[in-house]
Amino acid sequence: MGRIVLLATGGTIASRTSAQGRRVSVGAAELLRSALEVDGLGATVVETRDVSATAGFAVDVPGALALVRTVRAAVNEADGVVVTHGTDTLEEVAFLLALAHAGRAPVVVTGAQRPFDDPAPDGPRNLSAALRWAASPASAGSGVMIAFADAILPAIGVRKTHALALDAFSAPDRGPSGHVDEAGVRHHHFASPPGPLLTSDLVDLPRVEVVAQYLGCDGSQVGRAVQAGARGLVVAAFGAGNATPGTVRACLQALETGTPVIVAGRTGAGAVTGLYAGGGADLAEAGAIFAGDLSPWQARLLLAVALAPEPETPDVEAVAWRCRTWLRAAGAIAAED
Protein backbone atom coordinates (compact mmCIF):
# COMPACT_ATOMS: atom_id res chain seq x y z
CA MET A 1 0.00 0.00 0.00
CA GLY A 2 1.58 3.30 -1.12
CA ARG A 3 1.47 6.62 0.67
CA ILE A 4 1.12 9.96 -1.12
CA VAL A 5 1.43 13.41 0.45
CA LEU A 6 -0.77 16.06 -1.17
CA LEU A 7 0.44 19.62 -0.62
CA ALA A 8 -2.04 22.40 -1.48
CA THR A 9 -0.61 25.86 -2.14
CA GLY A 10 -3.51 27.73 -3.75
CA GLY A 11 -3.94 28.76 -7.38
CA THR A 12 -6.93 28.58 -9.69
CA ILE A 13 -7.47 24.92 -8.86
CA ALA A 14 -8.36 26.03 -5.32
CA SER A 15 -10.27 29.20 -6.23
CA ARG A 16 -13.91 30.16 -6.26
CA THR A 17 -15.41 33.07 -8.16
CA SER A 18 -16.60 36.14 -6.27
CA ALA A 19 -17.82 39.60 -7.25
CA GLN A 20 -14.25 40.87 -6.80
CA GLY A 21 -12.70 38.09 -8.87
CA ARG A 22 -11.36 34.63 -8.17
CA ARG A 23 -10.06 33.95 -4.67
CA VAL A 24 -8.33 30.92 -3.17
CA SER A 25 -10.77 29.30 -0.76
CA VAL A 26 -10.49 25.51 -1.20
CA GLY A 27 -8.27 23.35 0.99
CA ALA A 28 -6.38 20.16 0.30
CA ALA A 29 -9.02 17.82 1.73
CA GLU A 30 -11.75 19.23 -0.51
CA LEU A 31 -9.45 19.10 -3.52
CA LEU A 32 -8.74 15.45 -2.80
CA ARG A 33 -12.44 14.61 -2.55
CA SER A 34 -13.07 16.18 -5.96
CA ALA A 35 -10.21 14.20 -7.51
CA LEU A 36 -11.38 10.90 -6.05
CA GLU A 37 -14.77 11.45 -7.70
CA VAL A 38 -12.92 11.29 -11.05
CA ASP A 39 -11.00 8.10 -10.28
CA GLY A 40 -10.14 6.19 -7.12
CA LEU A 41 -6.69 5.23 -5.90
CA GLY A 42 -7.35 1.77 -4.54
CA ALA A 43 -5.34 1.06 -1.40
CA THR A 44 -3.14 4.14 -1.74
CA VAL A 45 -3.27 6.41 1.31
CA VAL A 46 -3.24 10.16 0.66
CA GLU A 47 -2.31 12.57 3.43
CA THR A 48 -3.47 16.13 2.79
CA ARG A 49 -1.60 19.22 3.96
CA ASP A 50 -2.49 22.87 3.43
CA VAL A 51 0.78 24.71 2.83
CA SER A 52 -0.43 28.11 1.62
CA ALA A 53 -3.35 29.78 -0.16
CA THR A 54 -1.66 31.94 -2.77
CA ALA A 55 -2.53 32.87 -6.33
CA GLY A 56 0.18 31.82 -8.78
CA PHE A 57 1.03 35.40 -9.76
CA ALA A 58 1.64 36.33 -6.11
CA VAL A 59 4.25 33.65 -5.34
CA ASP A 60 7.69 35.07 -4.55
CA VAL A 61 11.14 33.46 -4.41
CA PRO A 62 11.22 33.02 -0.60
CA GLY A 63 7.80 31.37 -0.79
CA ALA A 64 8.94 29.05 -3.56
CA LEU A 65 12.06 28.12 -1.56
CA ALA A 66 9.88 27.42 1.47
CA LEU A 67 7.87 25.03 -0.71
CA VAL A 68 11.13 23.36 -1.80
CA ARG A 69 11.93 22.68 1.85
CA THR A 70 8.41 21.35 2.47
CA VAL A 71 8.55 19.03 -0.54
CA ARG A 72 12.04 17.84 0.39
CA ALA A 73 10.75 16.81 3.83
CA ALA A 74 7.66 15.13 2.35
CA VAL A 75 9.73 13.15 -0.18
CA ASN A 76 11.66 11.61 2.69
CA GLU A 77 8.52 10.18 4.28
CA ALA A 78 6.26 9.20 1.36
CA ASP A 79 6.18 7.13 -1.81
CA GLY A 80 5.19 10.18 -3.83
CA VAL A 81 4.34 13.86 -3.45
CA VAL A 82 1.71 15.88 -5.31
CA VAL A 83 1.65 19.69 -5.24
CA THR A 84 -1.26 21.85 -6.37
CA HIS A 85 -0.14 25.29 -7.56
CA GLY A 86 -1.16 28.35 -9.52
CA THR A 87 -0.36 28.09 -13.23
CA ASP A 88 1.19 31.56 -13.69
CA THR A 89 4.43 30.52 -11.98
CA LEU A 90 4.01 26.75 -12.11
CA GLU A 91 6.75 26.19 -14.72
CA GLU A 92 9.23 28.09 -12.55
CA VAL A 93 8.29 26.52 -9.21
CA ALA A 94 8.29 23.02 -10.72
CA PHE A 95 11.74 23.69 -12.20
CA LEU A 96 13.02 24.92 -8.83
CA LEU A 97 11.73 21.68 -7.30
CA ALA A 98 13.62 19.78 -10.01
CA LEU A 99 16.81 21.67 -9.13
CA ALA A 100 16.43 20.40 -5.56
CA HIS A 101 15.01 16.91 -6.14
CA ALA A 102 16.77 13.81 -4.87
CA GLY A 103 15.55 10.28 -4.28
CA ARG A 104 13.18 7.88 -5.99
CA ALA A 105 9.84 9.28 -4.87
CA PRO A 106 8.11 11.09 -7.76
CA VAL A 107 6.96 14.69 -7.33
CA VAL A 108 4.02 15.81 -9.46
CA VAL A 109 2.87 19.43 -9.76
CA THR A 110 -0.58 20.26 -11.09
CA GLY A 111 -3.13 23.05 -11.22
CA ALA A 112 -6.08 24.21 -13.26
CA GLN A 113 -7.20 26.76 -15.81
CA ARG A 114 -10.75 26.91 -14.47
CA PRO A 115 -11.76 27.62 -10.88
CA PHE A 116 -13.06 24.99 -8.48
CA ASP A 117 -16.67 26.22 -8.81
CA ASP A 118 -16.69 26.34 -12.62
CA PRO A 119 -19.52 24.29 -14.19
CA ALA A 120 -16.85 22.17 -15.92
CA PRO A 121 -13.67 22.44 -13.82
CA ASP A 122 -10.46 20.86 -15.05
CA GLY A 123 -8.79 20.76 -11.64
CA PRO A 124 -10.28 17.49 -10.35
CA ARG A 125 -9.19 15.57 -13.45
CA ASN A 126 -5.70 17.12 -13.39
CA LEU A 127 -5.31 16.30 -9.70
CA SER A 128 -6.58 12.76 -10.23
CA ALA A 129 -3.96 12.26 -12.95
CA ALA A 130 -1.21 13.65 -10.71
CA LEU A 131 -2.19 11.35 -7.85
CA ARG A 132 -2.43 8.29 -10.10
CA TRP A 133 1.02 8.99 -11.59
CA ALA A 134 2.55 9.49 -8.14
CA ALA A 135 0.93 6.27 -6.91
CA SER A 136 2.15 4.17 -9.84
CA PRO A 137 5.16 2.02 -8.86
CA ALA A 138 6.57 2.53 -12.37
CA SER A 139 6.82 6.28 -11.71
CA ALA A 140 9.57 5.79 -9.11
CA GLY A 141 12.66 7.62 -10.27
CA SER A 142 10.77 9.88 -12.70
CA GLY A 143 11.75 13.03 -10.81
CA VAL A 144 9.57 16.15 -10.94
CA MET A 145 6.69 16.11 -13.43
CA ILE A 146 3.71 18.28 -14.31
CA ALA A 147 0.27 16.71 -14.77
CA PHE A 148 -2.03 18.73 -17.01
CA ALA A 149 -4.79 17.85 -19.48
CA ASP A 150 -4.06 14.09 -19.22
CA ALA A 151 -0.38 14.60 -20.13
CA ILE A 152 2.59 14.06 -17.84
CA LEU A 153 5.34 16.54 -18.75
CA PRO A 154 8.90 16.88 -17.42
CA ALA A 155 9.41 19.95 -15.24
CA ILE A 156 12.71 20.64 -17.02
CA GLY A 157 11.94 22.40 -20.30
CA VAL A 158 8.21 22.80 -19.68
CA ARG A 159 6.45 26.04 -20.59
CA LYS A 160 3.00 27.50 -20.16
CA THR A 161 2.04 28.00 -23.79
CA HIS A 162 -1.60 29.09 -23.61
CA ALA A 163 -3.29 31.63 -21.37
CA LEU A 164 -6.72 29.99 -21.20
CA ALA A 165 -6.80 26.60 -22.94
CA LEU A 166 -7.08 23.47 -20.82
CA ASP A 167 -3.92 22.02 -22.37
CA ALA A 168 -1.96 25.04 -21.20
CA PHE A 169 1.47 23.40 -20.81
CA SER A 170 3.87 21.73 -23.18
CA ALA A 171 7.49 20.60 -23.27
CA PRO A 172 8.24 21.43 -26.92
CA ASP A 173 11.61 19.70 -27.15
CA ARG A 174 10.83 16.75 -24.88
CA GLY A 175 7.19 15.80 -25.28
CA PRO A 176 5.01 14.01 -22.73
CA SER A 177 6.64 11.43 -20.48
CA GLY A 178 3.30 9.71 -20.08
CA HIS A 179 -0.46 10.04 -20.08
CA VAL A 180 -3.10 9.36 -17.46
CA ASP A 181 -6.66 8.97 -18.65
CA GLU A 182 -9.42 6.38 -19.06
CA ALA A 183 -6.85 4.01 -20.58
CA GLY A 184 -4.84 4.06 -17.36
CA VAL A 185 -1.40 5.29 -16.36
CA ARG A 186 0.91 4.97 -19.35
CA HIS A 187 4.64 5.56 -19.02
CA HIS A 188 6.16 6.50 -22.38
CA HIS A 189 9.66 7.51 -21.39
CA PHE A 190 11.46 9.60 -18.82
CA ALA A 191 15.11 10.35 -18.30
CA SER A 192 16.79 9.83 -14.97
CA PRO A 193 16.65 13.05 -12.94
CA PRO A 194 19.91 15.03 -13.12
CA GLY A 195 20.43 15.17 -9.37
CA PRO A 196 20.12 18.18 -7.10
CA LEU A 197 21.96 21.43 -7.71
CA LEU A 198 20.08 23.13 -4.87
CA THR A 199 21.14 21.17 -1.80
CA SER A 200 20.99 23.72 1.04
CA ASP A 201 17.95 25.25 2.72
CA LEU A 202 18.06 28.73 1.22
CA VAL A 203 15.60 31.47 2.17
CA ASP A 204 16.29 33.60 -0.92
CA LEU A 205 18.32 33.55 -4.14
CA PRO A 206 20.81 35.98 -5.65
CA ARG A 207 19.30 38.56 -7.94
CA VAL A 208 19.37 37.54 -11.61
CA GLU A 209 17.75 39.78 -14.21
CA VAL A 210 16.28 38.80 -17.59
CA VAL A 211 17.33 41.01 -20.51
CA ALA A 212 14.71 40.77 -23.25
CA GLN A 213 15.72 41.05 -26.89
CA TYR A 214 13.55 43.04 -29.30
CA LEU A 215 13.90 45.11 -32.45
CA GLY A 216 16.18 48.05 -31.70
CA CYS A 217 17.29 46.89 -28.25
CA ASP A 218 20.44 48.87 -27.42
CA GLY A 219 21.75 46.84 -24.48
CA SER A 220 21.47 49.66 -21.94
CA GLN A 221 19.31 47.47 -19.68
CA VAL A 222 22.36 45.26 -19.07
CA GLY A 223 24.22 48.09 -17.34
CA ARG A 224 21.12 49.16 -15.44
CA ALA A 225 20.55 45.63 -14.18
CA VAL A 226 24.13 45.33 -12.92
CA GLN A 227 23.98 48.77 -11.28
CA ALA A 228 20.73 47.74 -9.57
CA GLY A 229 22.48 44.76 -7.96
CA ALA A 230 22.02 41.89 -10.39
CA ARG A 231 24.66 39.22 -9.83
CA GLY A 232 23.79 37.40 -13.03
CA LEU A 233 22.04 38.05 -16.34
CA VAL A 234 19.79 36.02 -18.61
CA VAL A 235 19.51 37.05 -22.26
CA ALA A 236 16.09 36.15 -23.66
CA ALA A 237 17.63 35.75 -27.08
CA PHE A 238 16.46 35.90 -30.67
CA GLY A 239 16.40 32.73 -32.74
CA ALA A 240 19.03 30.16 -31.82
CA GLY A 241 20.77 32.41 -29.30
CA ASN A 242 21.43 35.83 -30.78
CA ALA A 243 21.32 39.31 -29.30
CA THR A 244 21.57 42.80 -30.75
CA PRO A 245 25.09 44.23 -31.19
CA GLY A 246 24.53 46.61 -28.28
CA THR A 247 23.43 43.81 -25.99
CA VAL A 248 26.37 41.64 -27.04
CA ARG A 249 28.84 44.44 -26.26
CA ALA A 250 27.22 45.06 -22.87
CA CYS A 251 27.21 41.34 -22.01
CA LEU A 252 30.88 40.97 -22.98
CA GLN A 253 31.71 43.81 -20.61
CA ALA A 254 29.60 42.21 -17.86
CA LEU A 255 31.42 38.90 -18.30
CA GLU A 256 34.80 40.66 -18.14
CA THR A 257 33.87 42.29 -14.83
CA GLY A 258 32.61 39.09 -13.19
CA THR A 259 28.86 38.94 -13.96
CA PRO A 260 27.81 35.55 -15.39
CA VAL A 261 25.55 35.56 -18.44
CA ILE A 262 23.23 32.75 -19.50
CA VAL A 263 21.52 32.69 -22.89
CA ALA A 264 18.02 31.23 -23.36
CA GLY A 265 15.57 31.43 -26.25
CA ARG A 266 12.54 33.69 -26.46
CA THR A 267 10.99 31.66 -29.30
CA GLY A 268 9.18 29.08 -27.17
CA ALA A 269 10.86 25.99 -28.62
CA GLY A 270 14.27 24.81 -29.72
CA ALA A 271 17.71 24.88 -28.13
CA VAL A 272 20.03 27.88 -28.22
CA THR A 273 23.65 27.69 -29.33
CA GLY A 274 26.29 30.16 -30.48
CA LEU A 275 26.20 30.20 -34.29
CA TYR A 276 26.45 33.77 -35.61
CA ALA A 277 29.45 36.09 -35.58
CA GLY A 278 28.53 39.34 -33.83
CA GLY A 279 25.75 37.54 -31.98
CA GLY A 280 25.59 34.19 -30.21
CA ALA A 281 29.05 33.07 -31.35
CA ASP A 282 30.66 36.08 -29.66
CA LEU A 283 28.77 35.40 -26.44
CA ALA A 284 29.80 31.74 -26.49
CA GLU A 285 33.46 32.64 -27.11
CA ALA A 286 33.39 35.00 -24.12
CA GLY A 287 32.08 32.29 -21.77
CA ALA A 288 28.33 32.86 -21.73
CA ILE A 289 26.32 29.78 -20.76
CA PHE A 290 23.83 28.47 -23.31
CA ALA A 291 20.75 27.00 -21.63
CA GLY A 292 19.59 24.55 -24.30
CA ASP A 293 15.80 24.22 -24.29
CA LEU A 294 15.17 26.02 -20.99
CA SER A 295 12.94 29.07 -21.03
CA PRO A 296 14.48 32.37 -19.87
CA TRP A 297 12.52 32.01 -16.63
CA GLN A 298 13.89 28.55 -15.88
CA ALA A 299 17.39 29.65 -16.93
CA ARG A 300 17.13 32.52 -14.44
CA LEU A 301 16.52 30.09 -11.58
CA LEU A 302 19.33 27.82 -12.72
CA LEU A 303 21.82 30.69 -12.71
CA ALA A 304 20.56 32.01 -9.37
CA VAL A 305 20.97 28.60 -7.73
CA ALA A 306 24.45 28.21 -9.25
CA LEU A 307 25.37 31.65 -7.89
CA ALA A 308 24.07 30.97 -4.39
CA PRO A 309 27.31 29.44 -3.00
CA GLU A 310 29.43 32.27 -4.43
CA PRO A 311 30.60 35.47 -2.72
CA GLU A 312 29.49 38.88 -3.97
CA THR A 313 32.12 38.70 -6.74
CA PRO A 314 31.52 35.23 -8.17
CA ASP A 315 33.95 32.91 -9.86
CA VAL A 316 32.36 33.08 -13.30
CA GLU A 317 34.04 29.89 -14.50
CA ALA A 318 32.88 27.95 -11.43
CA VAL A 319 29.31 29.17 -11.89
CA ALA A 320 29.40 28.23 -15.58
CA TRP A 321 30.76 24.78 -14.73
CA ARG A 322 27.91 24.15 -12.26
CA CYS A 323 25.31 25.24 -14.81
CA ARG A 324 26.73 23.26 -17.72
CA THR A 325 27.23 20.11 -15.64
CA TRP A 326 23.61 20.19 -14.52
CA LEU A 327 22.34 21.06 -18.01
CA ARG A 328 24.20 18.07 -19.48
CA ALA A 329 22.78 15.75 -16.83
CA ALA A 330 19.30 17.13 -17.54
CA GLY A 331 19.62 16.55 -21.27
CA ALA A 332 19.25 20.28 -22.00
CA ILE A 333 22.62 20.51 -23.77
CA ALA A 334 24.85 17.99 -25.48
CA ALA A 335 27.07 15.74 -23.37
CA GLU A 336 30.06 17.52 -24.89
CA ASP A 337 29.66 21.09 -26.04
Automatic annotation (TrEMBL):
It comes from Marinactinospora thermotolerans DSM 45154. SUPFAM superfamilies: Glutaminase/Asparaginase. The active site is at 12, 12 (o-isoaspartyl threonine intermediate), 87. Pfam families: Asparaginase, Asparaginase_C. Keywords: Hydrolase. This is asparaginase. Residues 3-187 form the L-asparaginase N-terminal domain. Residues 207-314 form the Asparaginase/glutaminase C-terminal domain. Gene3D superfamilies: 3.40.50.40, L-asparaginase, N-terminal domain. PANTHER family: 60 KDA LYSOPHOSPHOLIPASE, L-ASPARAGINASE. It comes from the Bacteria. GO terms for molecular function: asparaginase activity. Its EC number is 3.5.1.1. It catalyses: L-asparagine + H2O = L-aspartate + NH4(+). The keyword Hydrolase applies.
